[in-house]
Design a protein that fits this description.
By secondary structure, the protein is α/β, with parallel strands linked by helices. It has eleven helices and twelve strands.
């Protein structure tokens, strides 16, 4: 009997994914006020594959995709591989500009809209609840599909939880993506998407042509972990530690960075966004930062067009508190030399 049970771990799966795992995800989605069933869920090799499948279905060369300014680099790379034409929509401290989004839809008639509304990569900004509701209404009125990419939603350290855009979706125009990589382990490469029945059938066919199905072993291993270990405590531990590191980074920046440098103060996620004086180029500065034995990600690659060269992304989740203090000190030293 045990051998028969273990054999299932090595057998082929349905393209949609391991049903008990999809049922678990459906229950988690309902906790986020997203009304869905297991039949509306597709298990993917990370949410990056979900992006690729959606691009494959929707985008022909020259088709318009609306993205935030700035946007997630990995998504831009996927859409570029299908020769999409980007129109970027401005953002502020509450996320995407609603009026600008509505105007861009009516003017450019996009095939897709892509947003990361919660603890956005790269800026850490979260779309307000009112704007989430407005975005859902706009895409419904204009009948244009929107991809809501939400890998960081569980990583909130402060403030009130904001419901996903998908929770306000009444007609199925919002396609929701998420992943276990930020809450279990990045090496799992295990994500999912939530879509309506008609689109799901096409996505299943596209996935069959790509890899038949996500690996059975990794799906069952993830499900076993979710069912037999205290996932809530694990996520709380992550939140506590990442939140502590975020606080340390912000405190060190406040103490040490020159007054002409500004940055976001995210309530969760992994990243914050730094804006240097307009005359500085973060790409060119990177080599000097490396000489100081510190690194960052220049902001330019996160722009679909018209990059702001004086921006950069910092990650507080993957360094120890001592490394954060040392790294911010070295960056402050570099910025101070330029400021002086």
């Amino acid at each position: 009997m045990l051998e028969d049970h273990l054999l299932c771990w090595w057998s082929a799966s349905t393209t949609e994914g391991f049903l008990p795992l999809r049922e678990y995800i459906a229950s988690q989605m309902q906790a986020k006020e997203i009304e869905t069933k297991s039949d509306n869920i597709l298990i993917t090799n990370g949410s990056q594959q979900a992006l690729d499948l959606l691009a494959k279905l929707f985008i022909n060369p020259g088709d318009v995709v609306l993205v935030e300014k700035p946007s997630y680099l990995g998504a831009l790379q996927v859409f570029r591989s299908y020769q999409a034409r980007f129109i970027d929509v401005p953002t502020d401290d509450e996320g995407i500009n609603i009026e600008a989004l509505d105007i861009a839809i009516k003017k450019h008639h996009p095939k897709l809209i892509y947003v990361t509304p919660t603890f956005k990569n790269p800026t850490g900004v979260t779309l307000s609840k009112e704007r989430c509701r407005s975005v859902a209404k706009i895409v419904q009125e204009n009948k244009v599909p929107l991809i809501e990419d939400d890998p960081y939603g569980e990583l909130r350290y402060y403030g009130e939880v904001v419901p996903p855009i998908k929770s306000f979706d009444e007609t199925g125009w919002v396609i929701y993506l998420s992943t276990f990589s930020k809450t279990i382990a990045p090496g799992l490469r295990l994500g999912w998407l939530v879509a309506e029945k008609d689109l799901m059938g096409k996505l299943v066919l596209a996935k069959q042509g790509t890899d038949l199905h996500t690996g059975t072993l990794v799906q069952r291993a993830a499900y076993h972990y979710l069912m037999n270990y205290n996932v809530t405590n694990h996520v709380e531990t992550i939140r506590s530690e990442y939140g502590r590191r975020r606080d340390i980074m912000l405190q060190e920046m406040e103490k040490n960075f020159p007054t002409n440098v500004s940055w976001t103060k995210p309530e969760g996620g992994m990243f914050l966004w730094v804006t240097l004086p307009e005359n500085l180029d973060a790409v060119k500065l990177l080599s000097r930062a490396i000489e100081e034995k510190v690194a960052y990600v220049p902001g330019a690659p996160f722009y679909a067009d018209d990059a702001c060269l004086n921006t950069l992304r910092l990650n507080y989740s993957n360094a120890t508190p001592d490394q954060i203090k040392s790294g911010i000190g070295r960056l402050a030293n570099l910025f101070g030399k330029l400021h002086g």
